[in-house]
Amino acid sequence: MDVQYRNIHYYGKGDDDKIKDLDFQDKLNFINPKLGITYFINATQNLYLSYALASKEPTRNDYVENPRNEFPKPESMQNIEAGYRINTEKYSLAANVYGMFYNNQLIPTGAINDVGSALRINAKDSYRAGIELDGSWKINDHFNWGLNAALSQNKIKNFTEEIPQYDQDWSYLGTLKIEHASTTIAKSPSTILGNTFTYKPTQQLSMSIMSKYISRIYLDNSSDTNRSIDPSFVHNFQAIYSFSLWGIKNIELNLLVNNLLNAKYATSGYTWSQKFEKEQDSKYYNFYYPQAETNAMLGLNIRF
Predict the structure, then answer these.
(1) What string of H, E and C letters represents the secondary structure of the chain?
(2) Which of 54, 192, 273, 276 could, after both became Cys, cross-link 284 (CB 3.0–4.6 A)?
(3) Beta pairing class for 143-166 and 266-276
(4) Is residue 44 within 8 Å of 87, Cβ to Cβ?
(5) How far apart are CA 284 and CA 130, in angstroms?
(6) Is 129 left (phi over 0), alpha (psi -120 to 50) or beta?
(7) Burial grade of 15 (CB within 10 A; 0-12, 13-18, 19 or more)
(8) What is the radius of gyration, based on Cα positions, of the chain?
(9) pTM recorded for the entire structure
(10) Which has the closest alpha carbon to 194: 236, 248, 251, 155?
(11) Angle at the Cα of 273 (from 189 to 223), degrees rounded to 5?
């Protein structure tokens, strides 16, 4: 068990590059306790259970560039976790079930500011819950197989989406409000899967194929597939050769080839929407950060 106390005092005054006569302050006190228990079944297996209450202050951007012109609130979270672990010479497995229940979670809106930082707002009631799995199997002295998975639900309850409205002369008319009983938190994929297969023909040389799958990523909090990033499945290759030479304890050559199959994919981006008075549907504008095509990197590590 441990308890953390934090005191935060924000104070800002002056001119920002976009806001004149900036003047705000915020005094925050946080008490963050954590309690956990572990039960050892035997020398290789154990069970654990933990509970934590954590609070966190807004960032400077949350105060200065709040999209709704609201004074941001600190977020708090209750985290409950339970898991099982086993570790033997041949195989290992870890399973972790968690629930993170938020009050006033600071979530990304999907939009960014003029220097690329995400804009965030408070969501009154939200949660992240799921299961994490991590395992490995030593097939023999030459082959090893590792797997990991993160399956989750990341939801906001009773979320109000706000879209700015304009007339044909670009005069601001207020916001269009769309109510969502439950919607997925932006930038939070529900499935992440990883696979690593390693072949070690000698003690000095190992070669690995590493694969990663990421499910659909919503750019904002509308759960609209038109404002999302398609799932991606990418494979990388790594070779490591270690040896000694001229009295040097260890020399390691590391070759990494990313995106073996030259997939065209993105893992992040941003979006924003607007509606014009005489048009029935809102317009949205998506922007993506594409990842590199097939590329390689060669590294050298020397340990004396």
Answers:
(1) CEEEEEEEEEEEEECCCCCCCEEEEEEEEEEEEEEEEEEECCCCEEEEEEEEEEEECCCHHHHHCCCCCCCCCCEEEEEEEEEEEEECCCEEEEEEEEEEEEEEEEEEEEEECCCCCEEEEEEEEEEEEEEEEEEEEECCCCEEEEEEEEEEEEEEEEEEEEEEEECCCCCEEEEEEEEEEEEECCCCCCEEEEEEEEECCCCCEEEEEEEEEECCEECCCCCCHHHEECCEEEEEEEEEEEEEECCEEEEEEEEEEECCCCCCCEEEEEEEEEEECCCCCCEEEEEEEECCCCEEEEEEEEEC
(2) 273
(3) parallel
(4) yes
(5) 31
(6) beta
(7) exposed
(8) 24
(9) 0.90
(10) 236
(11) 30
Q: Which residue has the tokens 């991606």?
A: 232
Quick one: which of 101, 197, 193 has its CA closest to 150? 193
Show me where the domains of the chain are located.
139-303
pLDDT tens per residue across span 174-228: 888 999 999 999 999 999 999 999 999 998 999 999 999 999 999 999 999 999 9
Token output for 70: 């609201």
> Cβ–Cβ contacts within 10 Å for residue 107, how many?
23
Between CA 77 and CA 32 the distance in angstroms is 10
Q: What are phi and psi of 227, to 5 degrees?
A: -120, 60
Q: Which two tokens stand for residue 109?
A: 């809106």
Looking at this protein, which amino acid is placed at residue 285? Y
Are 303 and 250 spatial neighbours (Cβ–Cβ below 8 Å)?
yes
pLDDT in tens, 105-160: 999 999 988 888 889 999 999 999 999 999 999 999 999 999 999 999 999 999 99
> In which residue are the tokens 């919607």 written?
183
